[in-house]
Amino acid sequence: MQRTPEPELMDGAEQAQAYAAADFSAGDQALIERLDQLFPAGLGPRLADLGCGPGNISFRLARRHPQAEVLGIDGAEAMLEPARVLLAAEPQLSPRLRFERRCLPDPDLAGGFSAVISNSLLHHLHDPAVLWQAVKQLAAPAACIYIKDLRRPPSPEAALALQQRYLADAPAVLQHDYIASLHAAFTPAEVEQQLQQAGLADQLQVAPQDDRYLEVWGRLL
Questions:
Q1: 21-64 pLDDT, tens per residue?
Q2: What's the Rg (C-alpha) of the chain?
Q3: What are 90-105's pLDDT values in tens digits?
C-alpha cells in the first residue's frame, strides 16, 4: 500500500474534543513503562514531548519524573487547549510542566533536553526529515530518544481490519482519522532510510511493535 499523507495539523474543534475525551490511558501508560524499560537510569532533568496533543504523555512524564521539567510541543492550538485546562486543575505541576504551540521546523526551539519523546507525530509530517532534524536540534549530548508511531499496513483491507479491531465503537471522527493515519504511516524500512539520511542510523534503532506500531529508540552520541 502506497503512503497517502494526511493533514499535518489536527486543528479542528471536533477533532480536539474527541481526542481529549478518548480513553488512551492503557497505551499511554504502556509507553511510560516502555521508557522505564529502555532507560532504567531515568530520562534526566529536561524532557520534550513532540506532538503532545492534549498532553496525555506530557502529564504522565511529569508525574513519573517529579524532578524533571517537561515541555509539551504541538502545532495545533485546538489540541493544546485541553492540555492547558487540565494543567490549571493540577497547579502543583505548573512549575515543571508547560505547553507551547510550535510548528516544525522551528529554528527558535532551544535545545539541551535530556530526553526527546514523541508519540504518533511522525505519520502526520509530510516531510519526515522534519522530525529527525528536531530531534537533533533539541537533544543534549547522550539524550534519551524514543519515538513511537503507527506503521503502515500492507493493504487498505488490513488497515480497515485494524480499525475494526481497535476503534469499532469509537466516534466517527476517530475512526476516520485512524484509517487516514494508517495510510499516512511509514514502514520500519522507510524509517530506517530516514535515519540513514539524517545521520542517526548508528545511534537509533527501529523495530515493529505488536500489530500496528513501530518504535525508534536510543541515545544520541
A1: 666 788 999 999 999 999 999 999 999 999 999 999 999 999 99
A2: 16
A3: 999 999 999 999 999 9
Reported pTM: 0.94
Cα gap 39→45, rounded to integer Å: 14
| DSSP symbols for 92-153 | GGTTTEEEEE--SS-TT----EEEEEEES-GGG-SSTHHHHHHHHHHEEEEEEEEEEEEB--
Measured between its terminal Cα atoms, the distance across the chain in Å is 35
Q: Break the chain into its structural domains and give their ranges.
A: 24-151+186-219
Q: Which residue has the cell 534519551?
A: 144
Per CATH, domain 24-151+186-219 is 3.40.50.150 = yes
pLDDT tens profile 107-153 = 999 999 999 999 999 999 999 999 999 999 999 999 999 999 999 99
Cα dist. 157→32, 151, 181 in Å? 31, 15, 14
